[in-house]
Write a sequence for this structure.
């Protein structure tokens, strides 16, 4: 069992930045960030492979968000710049154990472990 602990959420004005962190208690194959706004389904934000740092992004965050990893600390980060009110959501860190084709990183069903979530609120 891998435990994930997120931190770094908060309230920020539009155009501002936040960095989320996710510390994992063990190693898996890949990590992802998802978000869920009130009344909406959980959606993919970004993912990264532990082995080679390969990354994937949702179109809505490309060029604004950056996912990175620190292998020594078993920690994944999500740097969020140019935040918009529509980025407001609870952000969840997730980890996948299996060696999937990378196209599956977009799907919540590919992940085995989830963090508790951290609130990000962007005011206009």
């Amino acid at each position: 069992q891998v435990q994930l602990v997120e931190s770094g959420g908060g309230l920020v004005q539009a155009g501002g930045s936040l960095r989320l962190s996710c510390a994992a208690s063990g190693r898996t194959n890949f990590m992802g960030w998802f978000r869920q706004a009130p009344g909406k389904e959980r959606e993919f934000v970004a993912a990264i492979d532990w082995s080679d740092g390969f990354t994937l992004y949702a179109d809505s965050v490309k060029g604004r968000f950056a996912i990175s990893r620190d292998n020594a600390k078993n920690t994944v980060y999500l740097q969020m710049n140019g935040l918009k009110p529509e980025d407001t959501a609870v952000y969840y860190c997730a980890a996948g154990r299996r060696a999937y084709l990378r196209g599956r990183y977009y799907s919540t069903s590919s992940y085995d472990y989830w963090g508790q979530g951290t609130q990000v609120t962007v005011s206009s």
Notes: The mean pLDDT is 96.
